[in-house]
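### Sample
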Amino acid sequence: MSALPLPFPLLSSISISSPQSHFSLKSSSSFLLPFQRVKLFRSTPEATLFFTAKTMAELVKDNESGVAAAGTTEGGKVEVEHSSTFLDARSEEEVLSGFKKEIEAGRLPPNVAAGMEEFFRNYKNAVFQSGDPAAAEIVLSNMAVALDRVLLDVEDPFVFQPYHKALREPFDYYMFGQNYIRPLIDFRNSYVGNLSLFYEIEEKLKQGHNVVLISNHQTEADPAVIALLLEKTNPHISENLIYVAGDRVITDPLCKPFSMGRNLICVYSKKHMYDVPELADMKRKANIRSLKEMAMLLRTGSKLVWIAPSGGRDRPDPVTGEWYPAPFDSSSVDNMRRLIESSGAPGHIYPLALLCHNIMPPPSQVEKEIGERRLIGFHGTGLSVGPEIAAAGEKSDEVKDVFTQSLYKSVTKQYTVLKSAIHGKQGLEASTEGVALSQPWN
């Protein structure tokens, strides 16, 4: 499931902070989009569908009418008839005029429209940084669908349950998020660390074991980045990972469509627990319900859970400007340890490092209000997993802290290697004895 409306967003831990959105209006040139390349409806993995934005609109309507007649299925959602303004757009000018049209029709609040416009412009600038000759087509095709999904949710708001299963039908929100983030990743300058351990994790899942990934958290796009870097080698991980997600990625209108494509356990962030004091008790009770949902899931086995026990996204040092994983909260780590130990299925905890902040850097400070400014960039990314770390001995506070620090040290070591490879331009030569880098998409 930061810097832009995503979920990707996303996403954090039992103590998490997440998305927001801020808005601005600027001028821009126009271009035409002849075709759209997406995989948004269920098909074989090999099938890639080509659509014009207009064709996409017709397919969405056809799918919705069929589902409305038959009812919902697991992972699906009956959708209402809604404006096709953005799907019908043939140029940037038509997209921009669409905002005014939807505001005047009373279907789009002006502040949301402003955020959507900035969303469009920033995405355009980032994709053009890639130098892809099809950048204009990519921007308009991806943004037509993204803006359409935001508008649909404004018209018919989706409500997330404590455990949300990714919506794949009639509209494939998972592939929507993948296709949106893919053009922002410089795969030539991206790396995966310890690929063999991801295979090890998949084997444990096949055996009915539960696996928890204790990770740092950088952007709203984290889930998509993880899934994209592993989609060629470990598609089971990419599609079945469950993210512990903060409430902001499921309430922000610009984030929600991206979050809808991820498996989520929805919680309220510790950092925002008392933003509105009178809601604190409600938030605590909601978190208890979410933890119960997670406990029930883990009892069935073969579950893979991602959690960022820092309580929010990493941020640069205010003095040096250097990025490092934010410290982990030992109570959040211990909550996960106790959940997997009491599940009845064998459980494992692995440290995961993620480097992708340049794609969507978060605000320099944690903000209370939903309304942060979204910045977007084209950049290399990195993902690495370290060997399993087991908690041993009596579970005193001291032991809990030592266990948490062991996980954190592994994440920071892996992060340093990724940083040398990507920002230090060392590439595969940045590999160490503990972190073997590869580019499995090559």
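The domain at 184-438 is CATH 3.40.1130.10 (Glycerol-3-phosphate (1)-acyltransferase). This sample (Glycerol-3-phosphate acyltransferase, chloroplastic) is used throughout the tutorial notebook.
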